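Question (not urgent): is this output format expected?
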Amino acid sequence: MSYAKVLCVGLVGMTGHLVEVEADLAAGLPAVVISGLPDTALHEARDRVRAAVVNSGQRWPNRRITLNLLPATLPKFGSAFDLAIAVALLGGSGELPLVPLERVVILGELGLDGTVRPVRGVLPMVAAAARAGIERVIVPVGNAAEAAVIPGMRVRAVDTLHRLVTFVRDGTPLIEPPAAEPPPPADGPDLADVAGQPLGRRALEVAAAGGHHLALLGPPGAGKTMLAERLPSILPELDDDAALEVTALHSIAGLLPSGGRLLRRPPFQAPHHTATVASLVGGGSGLARPGAVSLAHRGVLFLDEAPEFGKGALEALRQPLEHGRVQLARSRGGTEYPARTQLVLAANPCPCAKPAGDAYCECSPLARRRYLGRLSGPLLDRIDVQVRLPPVRAAELMAGDGGGESSAVVARRVAAAREAAATRWAGLGHRVNAEVAGPHLRRPPWRLPARDTTELRGRLDSGSISARGFDRIIRLAWTIADLDGRARPSREDVLEAIQLRTGDAA
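Got this back:
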């Protein structure tokens, strides 16, 4: 037999596609040709596979070998095809009977000595195989626990090409995936550690309950970073769909921790202010990889010292914040990653950043405007909650317990508010208030009475807020009502929302 075929999975962004790896061996000068839009890593598979086959004690066929990856119109990236190519090649040469591998997806990168190394993106690959009706998959040992997360999939693992060959020939059992490890205990920063700052704590709670973006402005030591780092501690755990999505993103990025479990805690990303556009929104040669905004999907993206970030990097966040996804165009095709994250910006009010606050500022008015002007109006217009934090007082700092509620207490209120919002917007397909489109809020039955929005309408007519700002304040009002257990926002809720958005007492 000179022809053989096995199954693999190709990944484009987060979308997996079933790929047939064909091998045809013909008479002629020895050569290996790979077709089907392979990238550089796949072209190099010729040398890796040859060395792995020979060093695993198998005979290399000195014939003209044609390897084809179907569908041929789909770009193929990465080294996850190595093991499937080796098996198809051995099957085509007559060395392996491939009946035991029918309807089995094979994934893995080969070392020159025949070891099978883990690859990125196994979770979305196995999920794609399951959607295609595949029930069995063979993966590297290092990816076995990750692959076993997909329900209904029979996962087996290999550590060497030789082990897979003996399984096919003699039926020697493959390696069972390890049992999933229990989730680690919930620990981390607690909101009770924050001294004082009742306005900041209220803003954080409202942002968590409604999924709103947050900007914290204040002098050094006011607690901006402490508040931002504690936002994940008051967010609800991820449900099954969100956890699978978040885990898949971290799998593609190669950041998935060991243990074989879904990531249930909202992720937290805090890139340095020298971060590039590609590191924030995604990029890279060939297959664009997810950036920090996607790795923070269903969690928090925290930009500390936000004015110090590059203007291009900040402006690149505008589209993901608006649409909840990142679309990356490359010469070999586009890639899309989800980016439904909560953005938290922290900034000093001026370059000198005196801890005592504005009263001791040494900066000129022009310097202050230029510094905060690095945060553009269109970007800030997408930030729902914008508050100024005062310096911490000695009495607040010296209070033994911090003087505030713990994360567990606040998290219960946030969970109840989110449940109320999810129930209300279930018919529209939204989870939190921040996702609801403005037209829905301005039409019955959700439109608020004119008497409750008089101040807000006046600010829109005067130009002090934009139409986008108008909708965001309405969303904030709904979140405040949910936190306080009311079915609809009142005039007081709208006024508090205006204050949280603009910093002005209405």
